[in-house]
Amino acid sequence: MTATTEEARGRRLTGRGVLLWLFAFFGVTFAVNGAFIYFALSTFPGVEVASSYKAGQEFEGEVLAGRAQAERAWTVDAAVRPVGDDASIEIRFRDKAGADLHGLDVRVQLIHAVDPDHDHAASLPEVASGTYRTVLPNVKAGMWSLTIEAYKGSERMFMSRNQLRLVR
């Protein structure tokens, strides 16, 4: 092969060129992976419970509370409706005979599916016999987890976790 033929075909690939291509390829790969790891960890902490050990210790009590709740056979109707940029939560409690349950301490948590900075918690006042309502400010559209708890005194009488999609 002559020098003019090599010049016509372009540059020669040398060991230095291969090394530069390898550094560029793996540099881009590491940078993209690093960005993905950063965004994954900064947007969702992945923590379901603060202490797995404590949750395990409380499990038997949760089973007993669930059985007692099932024996009460309450009917609980909950509705979450968008109101402008806010969300209205209304919950109605009835006993197994259909009578309204009043005088409960009702608490809700609206937990965003991805960003814990958007979570909301509130106590619901009783607005009518057996009906509790509140409005949570600045609730975005999307997937949410609604936790409802009702207490009489210090005893939790009802607990429910529900997945919902809020559409505007």
Per CATH, the class of the largest domain reads Mainly Beta
The CATH architecture term of the largest domain is Sandwich
Termini gap: 71 Å
Q: Using the coordinates shown, work out and report the CATH topology of the largest domain.
A: Immunoglobulin-like
Q: Report the oligomer.
A: single chain
Low-confidence spans: pLDDT under 50, at least 5 residues? none
Would you tell me the structural class of the helices and strands?
alpha+beta
What strand order characterises the main sheet? Answer: 1-2-6-5
Q: Helices and strands in order, then pairings?
A:
Elements lengths: L2 H7 L5 H29 L8 H21 L2 E9 L2 E9 L10 E8 L7 E5 L1 E3 L2 E6 L5 E11 L2 E12 L2
Antiparallel strand pairs: 1-2, 2-6, 3-4, 3-7, 5-6, 7-8
Description of the molecule:
It is a single chain. The protein is elongated, with a radius of gyration of 29 Å. The chain has a 4-stranded antiparallel beta sheet, with no helix packed on it. Strands 4-3-7-8 form a 4-stranded antiparallel beta sheet. A hairpin with a 2-residue loop joins β1 (75-83) and β2 (86-94). It is built from 3 helices and 8 strands; from the N terminus they run αααββββββββ. 34% of the residues lie in helices and 38% in strands.
